Amino acid sequence: GQNIDQPTEMTATEGAIVQINCTYQTSGFNGLFWYQQHAGEAPTFLSYNVLDGLEEKGRFSSFLSRSKGYSYLLLKELQMKDSASYLCAVNRGNRDDKIIFGKGTRLHILP
Amino acid sequence: DVKVTQSSRYLVKRTGEKVFLECVQDMDHENMFWYRQDPGLGLRLIYFSYDVKMKEKGDIPEGYSVSREKKERFSLILESASTNQTSMYLCASSPRDRAYNSPLHFGNGTRLTVT
After folding, report:
1. CB B25, CB B31: distance < 8 Å
2. Max alpha carbon distance in chain A (Å)?
3. Number of C-alpha atoms within 13 angstroms, CB side, residue A110?
4. pLDDT tens digits for B38-66?
5. Do residues B94 and A25 touch, judged by C-beta distance below 8 A?
6. Chain B interface, mutation test: which of A96, A100, A103, A105, most B Cβ atoms within 10 Å?
7. B106: nearest CA in chain A?
8. SS3 state of residue B36
9. How far is A45 from chain B (nearest CA, A)?
10. CB contact at 8 A, B69 and B55
């Protein structure tokens, strides 16, 4: 079957670092996306990985290991505005309808 | 910036009503999608369209239909609304000719309550 797992909720402190993990088992793999979604708003794109390794973009980094079916999103220097849900999504093929989403991780930032 | 606009943020409808959810994008994207988002289930694809007049079923099409008469507009139709269709509905779009890492662009969602 197709499965994407990520923790339901996490809590971290302002200024700290947090790592949100995502594991996947899919029939195909053509890239992994991370989206951020604030409550009541649209998901917005954060990062994309298709090759193994780390992609860094400012305070956010995303890592992929295709052999392990594993990715993580690393958020540094946490700010209160980072309180949101983070969605892991895998494209199983070469069309956008092949994208499947994890259930999302709700991140709470404490002052 | 790509803008995907959903006509209503909140809707309350009665069981059995026919419901129309409208989505418009302003970036000339060929691909458009309708998802529903439920707690504990994540985003699930209902229908999608890769061209005008074209539509394909996603993972959970039962109880829904769609219309794509113009490139910029993709409508989701609930033929006879039921309480289990109470959900957040998200529209998304993407270009046909795109870089491999080009993301989906989402609207802000329509929260539909069926009573």
Report:
1. no
2. 42
3. 4
4. 988 989 999 999 999 999 999 999 999 99
5. no
6. A96
7. A42
8. strand
9. 6
10. no
